[in-house]
Amino acid sequence: MIEIKELTKRFGKKSVVENVSVTIEPGTITSFIGPNGAGKSTLLSMVSRLLDADTGDVLLDQNNVKKWKSGEFAKRVSILKQSNYTNVRLSVRELISFGRYPYSKGRLTAEDDKFVDQAIEYMNLEDMQNEFIDELSGGQRQRAFIAMVIAQDTDYVLLDEPLNNLDMKHSVQIMKILRKLVDDLGKTVVIVLHDINFASVYSDRIVALKDGKLVKNGPTQDIINSKALREIYDMDIPVQVQNGCRICVYFNSHA
Amino acid sequence: MRLWMLIIATIVLSFISLFIGAIDISLGDLLDLDSDKTQIFLISRLPRLLAIILAGAGMSIAGLIMQSLSRNKFVSPTTAGTLDAAKLGIMISMLFFTNVTYTQQIIFSFAFALVGTLVFMQILDRIKFKDAIFVPLIGIMYGNILSSITTFFGYEADILQNISSWLMGSFTLIIAGRYELLYVSIPAIILAYLYANKFTVAGMGEDFAKNLGLSYKFVLNIGLVLVAIISTSVVLTVGVIPFLGLIVPNIVSLYLGDNLRKIIPHTMVLGSMFLLICDIIGRVIVHPYEIPVNVTVAVIGSAIFLIMLFRGRAYAKK
Fold this sequence. Notes:
The complex is a heterodimer.
Chain A: E1 2-11, E2 14-24, E3 29-33, H1 40-47, E4 55-60, E5 63-64, H2 70-76, E6 77-80, H3 92-98, H4 101-104, H5 110-122, H6 138-152, E7 156-160, H7 168-185, E8 188-192, H8 196-202, E9 205-210, E10 213-219, H9 220-223, H10 226-233, E11 239-242, E12 245-248
Parallel strand pairs in A: 3-8, 3-9, 6-7, 7-8
Antiparallel strand pairs in A: 1-2, 1-4, 4-5, 9-10, 11-12
Chain B: H1 3-18, H2 36-70, H3 82-96, H4 102-126, H5 134-156, H6 160-167, H7 185-194, H8 196-202, H9 206-211, H10 216-237, H11 244-256, H12 260-284, H13 293-317
Helix pairs in contact in B: 1-12, 2-7, 2-10, 2-11, 2-12, 3-4, 3-5, 3-10, 4-10, 7-10, 11-12, 11-13, 12-13
GO molecular function, one term (chain A): ATP hydrolysis activity
Protein name (chain A): ATP-binding cassette domain-containing protein
Main location (chain A): membrane
């Protein structure tokens, strides 16, 4: 279990994240939503140790994440940032193999290869496993990076805006795969999302931030309603139920 | 290209290199161990060949490490101020000690190469606009600033002529006893190979490296130390060889990718081979005189570099 306790981060005088406490429920997809500059990505970076918090703690299994050894932490929590570098000419398979780095330090064992094969199969990358990632389309590359995280085989998978620059088809594909990771493999996924409808349809819990502060935290159905969304986005957003999915119709809404 | 092809080509070129020069030496001459020709062979030709192979492999690996760690295809010891800083170090050691020893020169040159490269990496960290071409331009400007400091104080202290011998890369003066420092690049290259996976992971960015539990800063520093060791050993023995660390890793990257574990052997061998070709050309065209290797490397290298720029801009930016 990941517990975020009274976390605060300032850049200069501005608090980007202010006194946020959240518990990430294991075996769920939790979406971080909120307007631009709400501190979603910063919060995710602190949970994954990419950034140090100014005050407050993040606990993984009751132990402060700062006390975890890097190698051990990398076997429990993985993070995929939106800015991952794509200029490097690695083949898809090589990239995914690096997901095994925490276990093998680059010397792949037969077991590592098994994990890599599974990840490739899981993300449907068999046909392009020998292609260079810099020659793939955005959606294919994103799948390759997610496959790497799957090969890393961590209980917690943290993703920072994985749907950026992806079209609808690939976005849906990625979200379905994340759902499978949770439902079939028992992983816990934490994801920063911009499109609230993806959050609504695919996540179990939603954490809403605004100006660095926590405004809502709860099961998806408690957050996706006009009243709560008004608090988060300052917009009147009608919510319609379609095939059992709550869809936010935020187009043409009255701010 | 296969590795064994490169190795065979390098061996053939090595033989050619051993048997060209102002004095004709044939295999038969070497049977007489005491003859002048055998002496020339052992004191001049063989050390020269070893120096070329070590310098070529070393500079290419140094360039490869820098490109990986700076995540820019056009960064190399000549485009990031490393060699200029090493030269500045040598000049300062000569200013400080009237009878400067070789060891003092090595220490100063190494320290300056290391700090100089570190400063460049810091500059790189600060600038927002990380264009593939813009970054090496900054590096070249930075190197020229260091170089002009060297020239100014060298001129003031009247040691400019001494310094200019390091400005020019040449194997002409390599004889037994004057190139052995190059052997330190062997352990440096071995270490680079052992760290290959770590460099590749670090080359994917700090966040990426941290996600996999790699201590990014430590790996970065190891890489810079290796680059400084190799650059120092080359500058002090051969001089500055431009372009080598730039074009060789890029050519290998084009056909093999950026997985260092896989490309280090290719980069080494291709680097040696390229330098051998340039040296042979320099010795043949004005036979029995010689053109310094930095001139032939600059001519051939800049041509290849231009082709890379025109054809490869898209590839470098992708």
